[in-house]
């Protein structure tokens, strides 16, 4: 039932290369779920989420400090090894202290010629997306729209075409359906026991980051149909909420470990994908504005709304926990993931005091999340809940 | 062997007379701020990279948790000098860590939040920072500036304003001119900040008052640039040991006449030292750059090379980049331009490294010490790259690991060993040994 999604994740690079060969169109990489991939899709570009891998770091030691997040270091390491050579352009966002400097290392360790005319850049291989830190307020939407136009320009120059409002609208319709399907998939996890495990749900969501969204929508629609008659649903486990730093196919092993220990991740707040699809598009607005509003609605741990008494992150956690019958909460924070580590004490206090739920804190490296040490911690936590 | 109970650190020795006047200036500033609060006037907690002109134009007294954390790095509880009493920076860090904040978080952050969690804001050096009426922070330079202030504002139940300053002004390539759209955006951020302060304090914004304040900060910045130019002289008239102390009026009181007066006297003193060829050491043999913020708890390291005839002549961290000509018709627009142009991190790492290379040429640098601040990510990230590049330029480098304010991770003997090796290398290279 999930083999197609698992295949996409496992063979993501080959699939993207094949897609390029078949369509003759470019593929472009990006980091962070605030990135407006809808604009690339509208131009016929394949947006590819840059993620790491479980092989040891080879190339970036001596360049990026070991005191930086290993997930980010591994992403650039793969680029330096040539794994991401098939990408025609790359977008780096200013979404955390390390990510916002990755353009430098990407250029240094995995350079590719762009195009200049009279020394003026026309097409850059590595591009910067300046995403506001304050995601609401007087000028946030118009400013972001201006940034989106720059992304559109890059896509147009690589595809040698112009993106119309109609193209953007078509893209929005596909993404709107994608977000709706992801929410639908999420909401069926409210059932006891859920029809789908946390790891299976993660696979479905994560695989969408490497293939055209319309194709992924088709697979998800089929899956939702099939799930209705599922006879091999996962056994009931202790219902848990997981809040974690960058969760790609390496760190997602933690979800598998938790579920192997008898827990069941029924909802989550994960960097990489799950903060992405909770808002809907303002379809009555010009399409670029609708995209800007969507990207500004992501409750990323490094962002702030303009409200002087804002509590955005807690509101998001509360909203994604409501009605899931959560029995415990696990935080997994990658070492050096400062934004999540900073807010953890506050969120823990809120969860314990207002929701009266137990909290397990784990921090660790990107590699080896499914360690025996973590297994013991999880088993002890689940035992305590039982 | 009995384990070492405390870490041996010390303050730096100053060579410039005005540097000795900074501590009384700081004490007076704290006292005035406490008096201000007692009179019922508004106090803000803010960060070093926010435009101080905002506060002086709005009659608000600013305190800076980063500066306060640096103060805690050198002071012990009750003002004692007993080395068995741990420094306040360590005490507050421990409080934060006991409340769930990992030890790899920024030292400023841990000290600040530990101080707030401690509850008694007066139980700290110089009577602590007066309770704020509101906070203002900036998106510039690091994520912590926002997350830390968000956390403190929640705990103290005061409103927070975030000044969102675009960090790159051009798309995909580096330029020295802020992009117009980024300027427009940032001007709106500043206008809204003034409105926010009006709402919280009831004080009214006045363009005339802002112009007056900006005149003082403009002049102060001109003096700071002049001092930077004078410090290119051989022998160097003022070292980083003085610079890191003397930054207080420039960094935190920009926009006041007091800061301008202070720097005018400093400029005069440096001018005189250059004219009379008075250096930091009797015979200057080599010139060094300190790259990164210092370990505030052990500023004595800034004097360490003086025994070999070496002087830290420059640190690129606090650079007074030129401001545009005054434009009294649009002071808020001008303020936006100033800080977008001169703001930290505004041009990305490549440009930052290029500035360091240029400084090495301008100040004829023979070697560099890289302050490898393991909990200050934006500084730590670039150090490996800076080291490669400077060594390619035949400028030897050495790294000193530590925290900004928490001395527990500092290994003094290891640092001294490395610095000794570096001094010998440079002297040999210059044929002086």
Helical proportion of chain B, percent range: 40-55%
How do the strands of the widest beta sheet of chain A line up side by side?
Answer: 2-1-3-6
**Assembly state:** heterodimer
Stated plainly, the CATH topology of the domain at 3-161 in chain A is called Rossmann fold
Number of helices of chain A: 14
- Most extensive chain-chain interface: A-B, 54 and 53 residues
The outline of chain A comes out as globular
Largest sheet of chain A: 4 strands, parallel
Tell me the strand order in the biggest sheet of chain B.
2-1-3-4
Report the end-to-end length of chain B measured between terminal Cα atoms. 37 Å
- Under the CATH scheme, which class of the domain at 3-161 in chain A? Alpha Beta
Percentage of β-strand residues of chain B: 5-15%
> Spans of chain A of 5+ residues with little confidence (pLDDT < 50)?
none
Global geometry of chain B: globular
Give me some keywords for this one.
heterodimer; A: 386 residues; alpha/beta; Rossmann fold; globular; B: 433 residues; four-stranded parallel beta sheet; 14 helices; 48% helix
What does this structure look like?
The complex is a heterodimer of chains A (386) and B (433). Chain A is α/β, with parallel strands linked by helices and 386 residues long. Chain A has a domain at 3-161: Rossmann fold. Helices cover 44% and strands 13% of the residues of chain A. Chain A has a four-stranded parallel sheet with strand order 2-1-3-6, with helices on both faces. Chain A has a four-stranded parallel sheet with strand order 8-7-9-10, with helices on both faces. A two-stranded antiparallel ribbon of chain A has the order 4-5. Chain A is globular. Chain B has 433 residues and is of the alpha/beta class. Chain B has one domain (17-429). Chain B has helices at 22-38, 53-57, 65-74, 88-98, 107-118, 144-156, 180-201, 207-230, 240-252, 257-275, 331-342, 348-362, 377-392, 412-429, and strands at 43-46, 61-63, 134-138, 160-163, 286-291, 310-314, 367-373, 397-402. In chain B, the strands form two sheets. Chain B has a four-stranded parallel sheet with strand order 2-1-3-4, with helices on both faces. In chain B, strands 6-5-7-8 form a four-stranded parallel sheet, with helices on both faces. The radius of gyration of chain B is 21 Å and the shape is globular. The chains are: A alpha/beta (386), B alpha/beta (433). Chains A and B meet through helix 5, strand 6, helix 6 and helix 13 of A and helix 6, strand 4, helix 7, helix 12 and helix 13 of B.
């Amino acid at each position: 039932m999930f083999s197609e999604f698992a295949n996409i994740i496992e063979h993501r690079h080959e699939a993207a290369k094949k897609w390029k060969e078949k369509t003759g169109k470019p593929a472009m990489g990006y980091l962070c779920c605030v990135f407006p991939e809808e604009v690339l899709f509208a131009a016929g570009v394949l947006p590819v989420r840059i993620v790491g891998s479980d092989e040891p770091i080879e190339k970036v030691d001596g360049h990026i400090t070991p005191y930086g997040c290993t997930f980010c270091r591994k992403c650039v390491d793969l680029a330096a090894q040539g794994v991401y050579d098939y990408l025609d352009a790359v977008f780096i966002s200013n979404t955390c202290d390390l990510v916002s400097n990755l353009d430098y290392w990407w250029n240094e360790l995995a350079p590719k010629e762009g195009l200049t005319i009279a020394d003026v850049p026309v097409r850059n291989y590595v591009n910067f997306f300046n995403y506001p830190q304050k995601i609401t307020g007087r000028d946030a939407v118009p400013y972001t729209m201006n940034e989106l136009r720059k992304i559109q320009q890059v896509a147009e120059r690589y595809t040698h075409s112009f993106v119309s409002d109609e193209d953007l609208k078509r893209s929005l319709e596909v993404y709107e359906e994608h977000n709706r399907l992801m929410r639908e998939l999420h909401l069926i996890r409210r059932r006891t026991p859920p029809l789908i495990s946390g790891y299976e749900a993660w696979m479905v969501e994560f695989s969408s980051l490497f293939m055209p969204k319309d194709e992924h929508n088709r697979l998800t629609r089929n899956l939702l149909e099939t799930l209705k008659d599922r006879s091999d649903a996962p056994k009931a486990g202790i219902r848990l909420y997981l809040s974690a730093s960058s969760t790609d196919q390496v760190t997602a092993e933690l979800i598998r470990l938790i579920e192997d220990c008898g827990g069941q991740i029924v909802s989550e707040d994960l960097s990489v994908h799950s903060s992405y699809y909770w808002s809907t598009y303002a379809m009555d607005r010009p399409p670029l504005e609708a995209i800007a509003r969507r990207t500004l609605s992501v409750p990323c741990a490094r962002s702030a709304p303009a409200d002087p008494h804002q509590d955005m992150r807690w509101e998001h956690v509360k909203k994604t926990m409501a009605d899931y019958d959560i029995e415990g909460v696990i935080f997994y924070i990658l070492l050096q993931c400062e934004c999540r580590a900073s807010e953890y004490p506050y969120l823990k206090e809120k969860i314990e005091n207002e929701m009266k739920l137990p909290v397990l804190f784990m921090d660790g490296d990107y590699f080896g999340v499914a360690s025996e040490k973590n297994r013991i911690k999880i088993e002890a936590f689940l035992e305590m809940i039982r | 062997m009995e384990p070492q109970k405390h870490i041996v650190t010390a303050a730096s020795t100053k060579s410039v007379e005005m540097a000795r006047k900074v501590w009384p200036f700081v004490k007076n500033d704290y006292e005035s701020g406490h008096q201000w609060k007692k009179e019922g006037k508004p106090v803000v907690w803010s960060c070093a990279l926010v435009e101080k002109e905002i506060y002086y134009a709005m009659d608000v007294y600013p305190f800076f948790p980063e500066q306060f954390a640096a103060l805690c790095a050198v002071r012990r509880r009750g003002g004692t000098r007993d080395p068995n009493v741990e420094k306040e920076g360590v005490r507050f860090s421990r409080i934060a860590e006991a409340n769930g904040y990992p030890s790899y978080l920024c030292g400023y952050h841990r000290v600040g939040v530990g101080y707030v969690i401690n509850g008694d804001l007066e139980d700290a050096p110089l009577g602590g920072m007066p309770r704020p009426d509101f906070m203002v922070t900036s998106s510039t330079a690091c994520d912590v500036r926002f997350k830390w202030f968000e956390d403190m504002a929640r705990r103290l139940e005061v409103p927070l304003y975030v000044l969102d300053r675009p960090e790159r002004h051009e798309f995909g390539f580096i330029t020295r001119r802020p992009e117009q759209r980024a300027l427009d955006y940032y001007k709106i951020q500043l206008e809204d900040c003034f409105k926010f302060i009006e709402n919280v304090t009831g004080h009214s914004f006045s363009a005339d008052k802002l112009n007056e304040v900006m005149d003082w900060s403009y002049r102060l910045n001109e003096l700071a640039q002049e001092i930077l130019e004078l410090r290119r002289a051989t022998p160097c008239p003022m070292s980083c040991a003085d610079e890191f102390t003397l930054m207080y009026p420039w960094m935190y009181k920009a926009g006041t006449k007091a800061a301008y007066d202070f720097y005018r006297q400093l400029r005069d003193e440096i001018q005189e030292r250059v004219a009379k060829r008075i250096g930091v050491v009797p015979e200057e043999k080599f010139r060094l750059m300190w790259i990164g913020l210092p370990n505030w708890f052990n500023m004595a390291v800034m004097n360490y090379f003086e025994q070999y005839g070496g002087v830290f002549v420059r640190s690129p961290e606090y650079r007074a980049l030129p401001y545009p000509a005054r434009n009294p018709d649009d002071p808020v627009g001008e303020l936006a331009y100033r800080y977008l142009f001169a703001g930290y991190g505004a041009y990305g790492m490549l440009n930052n490294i290029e500035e360091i290379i240029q400084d090495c040429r301008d100040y004829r640098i023979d070697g560099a010490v890289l302050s490898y601040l393991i909990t200050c990510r934006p500084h730590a990230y670039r150090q490996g790259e800076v080291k490669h590049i400077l060594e390619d330029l035949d400028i030897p480098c050495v790294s000193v690991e530590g925290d900004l304010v928490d001395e527990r991770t500092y290994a003094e003997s290891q640092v001294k060993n490395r610095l000794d090796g570096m001094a010998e290398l440079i002297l040999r290279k210059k044929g002086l040994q």
